[in-house]
């Protein structure tokens, strides 16, 4: 019985043999281009890591939402696997690698790699949970996390004046700001609304639910441990969309 239950959970995640060669090369090209852009901005243009990290974050999460809307959950699994391999390769190369320097914050030293790996794992966990619990709205979580969180850190870094401390993993101090949380709310709401309209929801309901999703994402991002917000933001935003549109 347990075997059959686990099989029922796993089956929706499995891509077909035809989908992998159809989607993986395009995913690889997109991920390489996104990582090249982040590395170019960091190493050639001197853009600080909090910005280049979020450029990659924005690119990757946005495409994850698009892929899931077109190819469904199996497509997102193929795409996410390619992203994970690219990030892990950069981690193996370590300091000095252009892409690694674009995603590993100096402020996370001496655990820069830890705070590349933890968000990678929590992103995967957030996607899995969102799809297990709220399958048809998991893409909303991708977009709120991808756009909202991508805006929050740069805004907080540049304009954050009202700062507060959040719990951290591995003992690395972490702060956020009200200004950054406000950016997560606003940009996350826009992302959710656009995603819902792309999925066929009317402009009015998509706007209202989008604001609710952005608010949920901002609230949980504000109180989540440093490194865990990629999980909590995804689940909160997709859960709110499910509660308001599916129940």
How are helices and strands ordered from N to C?
Answer: HHHHHHEEHHH
Give the strand tally: 2
C-alpha end-to-end distance: 29 Å
Reported for the largest beta sheet, the result is: 2 strands, antiparallel
Low-confidence stretches: none
The helix content is over 70%
Q: Look at the structure and give the mean pLDDT.
A: 89
Integer-rounded radius of gyration: 18 Å
Spatial strand order of the main sheet: 1-2
- Summing up helix and strand content along with how strands pair, one would put the structural category as mainly alpha
By DSSP (H or I, 4+ residues per run), the number of helices equals: 9
Task: Please tell me what the overall shape is.
Answer: globular
Would you give an account of this structure?
With 247 residues, the protein is mainly α. The chain contains nine helices and two strands, in the order H-H-H-H-H-H-E-E-H-H-H. Strands 1-2 form a two-stranded antiparallel ribbon. Helix 2 crosses helix 3 and helix 7 packs antiparallel against helix 8. The longest helix is centred in the first third of the chain and has 45 residues. The protein is globular and about 45 Å long. The model has no long low-confidence stretch (mean pLDDT 89).
């Amino acid at each position: 019985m347990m075997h059959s239950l686990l099989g029922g959970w796993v089956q929706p995640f499995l891509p077909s043999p035809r989908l992998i060669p159809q989607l993986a090369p395009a995913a690889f090209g997109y991920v390489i281009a996104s990582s090249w852009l982040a590395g170019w901005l960091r190493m050639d243009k001197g853009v600080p890591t909090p910005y280049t990290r979020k450029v990659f974050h924005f690119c990757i999460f946005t495409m994850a939402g698009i892929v899931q809307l077109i190819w469904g959950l199996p497509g997102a699994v193929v795409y996410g696997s390619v992203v994970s391999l690219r990030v892990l390769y950069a981690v193996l190369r370590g300091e000095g690698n252009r892409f690694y320097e674009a995603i590993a914050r100096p402020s996370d030293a001496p655990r820069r790699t830890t705070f590349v790996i933890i968000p990678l794992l929590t992103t995967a966990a957030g996607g899995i949970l969102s799809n297990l619990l709220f399958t048809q709205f998991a893409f909303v979580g991708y977009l709120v996390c991808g756009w909202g969180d991508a805006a929050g850190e740069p805004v907080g870094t540049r304009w954050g004046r009202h700062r507060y401390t959040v719990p951290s993993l591995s003992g690395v101090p972490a702060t956020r700001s009200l200004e950054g949380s406000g950016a997560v709310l606003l940009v996350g709401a826009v992302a959710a609304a656009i995603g819902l309209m792309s999925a066929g929801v009317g402009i009015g309901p998509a706007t209202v639910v989008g604001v609710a999703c952005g608010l949920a994402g901002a609230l949980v991002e504000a109180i989540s441990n440093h490194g865990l917000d990629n999980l909590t933001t995804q689940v909160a935003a997709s859960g709110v969309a499910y509660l308001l549109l599916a129940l």
